[in-house]
């Protein structure tokens, strides 16, 4: 409902909510102590791909339009050296591609697999040519709850992220 811009009238929708089922781990390898297998619907509340055909919305002013050049293999921090701005369309397409703090962005065209994370306090922005994963748990919360440094001091490369390794700055 949130992705469609609809606000629930009350909490009655919660009665219909079904908790995501865990994965069948029978044929999966053993994990290190403290780790657990999870399915994507247990981890992410919203997954979408970026916009398409937005050239007509390009503008000198407006919202940030995050593109492939704003992601990097060596860090999850967004590269903001070259920013395109847009006047996004109203409706579902704009809502679907708008990012929020804590969203994980993954490139899906050209240089596939680069990862970025939208920082707290980032201005209104939309995405192109990348997946947007909105987590049920913010990465910063997970890192701090496990004794890691604050997310502002953590560097994660896309290669290390996919292999489960963190580089502390």
Report the structural category.
Answer: alpha+beta
Q: Would you list the SSEs in sequence order as H and E?
A: HEEEEHEEEEHEHE
How many helices in DSSP terms?
Answer: 4
**Poorly predicted tracts of residues:** 146-169
Strand content: 15-25%
Choose one word for the global shape: globular
Strand order of the largest sheet: 1-8-5-6
Radius of gyration, CA atoms, in whole angstroms: 18 Å
Mean pLDDT across residues: 75
- Share of residues in helices: 10-25%
How many strands appear in the DSSP assignment? Answer: 10
Span between N and C termini?
39 Å
Largest sheet: 4 strands, antiparallel
Molecular structure report:
The strands form three sheets. This protein has a four-stranded antiparallel sheet with strand order 1-8-5-6. It has four helices and ten strands. It is 13% helix and 21% strand. The radius of gyration is 18 Å and the shape is globular. By secondary structure, the chain is α+β, with helices and mostly antiparallel strands. Strand 5 and strand 6 (115-117) form a beta hairpin. Mean pLDDT is 75; it is low at 146-169. The protein starts with 39 loop residues before the first helix and ends with a strand. It has helices at residues 40-43, 92-97, 139-145, 158-162, and strands at 44-49, 58-59, 63-66, 84-86, 104-107, 115-117, 125-127, 130-135, 154-155, 167-168.
């Amino acid at each position: 409902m949130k992705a469609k811009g609809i606000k629930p009238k009350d909490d009655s929708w919660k009665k219909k909510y079904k908790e995501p089922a865990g994965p069948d781990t029978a044929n999966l390898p053993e994990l290190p102590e403290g780790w657990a297998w999870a399915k994507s619907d247990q981890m992410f509340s919203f997954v979408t791909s970026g916009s398409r055909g937005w050239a007509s919305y390009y503008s000198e002013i407006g919202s940030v339009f995050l593109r492939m050049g704003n992601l990097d293999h060596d860090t999850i921090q967004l590269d903001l050296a070259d920013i395109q701005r847009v006047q996004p369309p109203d409706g579902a397409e704009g809502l679907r591609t708008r990012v929020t703090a804590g969203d994980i962005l993954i490139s899906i065209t050209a240089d596939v697999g680069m990862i970025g994370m939208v920082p707290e306090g980032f201005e209104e922005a939309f995405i192109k040519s990348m997946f947007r994963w909105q987590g049920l748990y913010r990465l910063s919360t997970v890192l701090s709850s496990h004794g890691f440094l604050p997310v502002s001091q953590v560097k994660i490369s896309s290669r290390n992220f996919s292999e489960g390794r963190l580089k502390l700055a």
